[in-house]
Amino acid sequence: MDSPTSYRVDGAKTDFCIPGDLDATPSRRGHEDPVAGGFTLHGCYSSHSEACIGPGNLISVAVVAKSYFPGRRFGDLPQGSHLRTSAIEGWQDAKMLEEGLLAVPDGGDKSHIFVWRSSARGATQPMDDDELMASCDTLGSVSCNRVLHGDDFGVTYSFFTDNEIPGDFGSLDKQVLNEIERMRCRR
Q1: Phi then psi for 87, rounded to 5 degrees?
Q2: Is 168 helix (H, G, I), strand (E, B) or coil?
Q3: Which H or E element spans position 105?
Q4: Which pairs from 147-150 meet CB under 8 Å and 24+ separation?
Q5: 3 close to 18: Cβ distance less than 8 angstroms
Q6: pLDDT tens-digit readout, 16-54
Q7: Alpha-carbon torsion angle 77, 81, 82, 86, nearest 10
Q8: pTM of the model
Q9: Fewer CB atoms near the end CB (10 Å): N or C, the chain?
Q10: Nearest Cα to 125, choosing from 74, 78, 91?
């Protein structure tokens, strides 16, 4: 097995040591100095080997500076951004899910939805505290992207789900964050 490659993520208190048997991008096997910037790992769904992270439905995980994803709240989205515009235009056609979640259609792409946690039940438009939970493509198999904040890094991960629209993210969030935390370099 190759020795680990060290990746440095802006703002993270330690580097991340990726085992040589995992396929990381950018690939810097044998690189002595820490690789600056984030990294992406294949999840077990997309890996063609036993060396992968997460459960079988995890496609990929990218670790970046926390500042790369400023927030998931509606009020944090820039005026005129696609996410903000789609939420405003699709809110009236949203499908109510369990636990205060809404599936808001993307007006420009009928096979794409945004899953929001509404801060005010029954609201007719998005509120500043509404939180974007996932962005999903429902054409064929349902695949979603989700953004998380670790203590000192940002994460975006993608996954497949058997559900028509996913509603529970806690278990997968925890697995993804635990996998990343285990990769911190020991001093």
Answers
A1: -65, -45
A2: coil
A3: strand 101-106
A4: 147/69, 147/72, 148/173, 148/176, 148/177, 149/66, 149/69, 150/66, 150/177, 150/180, 150/181
A5: no
A6: 998 888 888 886 666 667 777 889 998 888 766 677 888
A7: 60
A8: 0.86
A9: C
A10: 91
